[in-house]
Specification:
Length: 197
């Protein structure tokens, strides 16, 4: 079963919420028949992504040492961290992977410009400056992962699971300056995506 999860928010953080209880409790699923739920503007959603991610810096809930949802102890969870934060901010990338589609996009899928992630489009850093709330990913040929994915934070930083160089367990959530590479020996460039149309 693995070690108990630590610092795992059992529900979305308290600052994340739906504007309409009817749509949240709709017995037909995620169908908002009357169009009553509002998810906010793209900028409000990006601000929520950043606020949520910053509130989780230092958490070991996505570290290799713990089980978290469908992810076993000893596994990388960078994509789960990103997916959890995006889901709490009403910008979920969905769960396209695994039997019964229970896993979010992998880091390698985030870093693949030809892979479609609903609601998330590729931005070109040469013509569009990455901004807080964007996602950055890079394909890296790890033996146990397809790359690394993080959330762009404020002031030229990224937020995501770390490599353990800070005396914290591997996978502890950290905020660091945007690096030139998200890991050793990348096999592709940094790919940025932004939520919205």
């Amino acid at each position: 079963m693995g070690a108990p999860m630590t610092n795992v928010p059992p529900v979305p953080p308290p600052w994340i919420g739906y504007s309409n209880p009817y749509a949240l409790n709709n017995p037909t699923g995620l169908i908002d028949t009357y169009g009553l739920d509002t998810y906010g503007t793209t900028q409000e959603i990006q601000n929520s992504i950043v606020k949520t991610a910053l509130g989780l810096v230092g958490s070991t809930a996505w570290s290799d040492q713990v089980e978290n949802g469908n992810y076993a102890t000893g596994t990388n969870k960078c994509n789960k961290f990103v997916s959890d934060v995006l889901g709490w901010a009403n910008a979920s990338p969905g769960t396209p992977n695994g039997l019964f589609h229970k896993y979010p996009p992998t880091a390698g899928q985030w870093a693949d410009p030809s892979y479609n992630i609903p609601g998330w489009h590729i931005i070109s850093p040469g013509t569009t400056t990455p901004q807080a709330g964007d996602i950055v990913a890079q394909q890296i040929p790890y033996s146990d992962a397809s790359g690394h994915v993080m959330i762009v934070g404020p002031n030229g930083t990224v937020i995501g699971t770390g490599d353990g160089n800070t005396r914290q367990p591997h996978g502890t959530v950290e905020q660091i300056p945007i690096p030139k590479s998200l890991g050793p020996n990348p096999s592709g460039p940094l790919i940025y995506r932004r939520f919205g149309p």
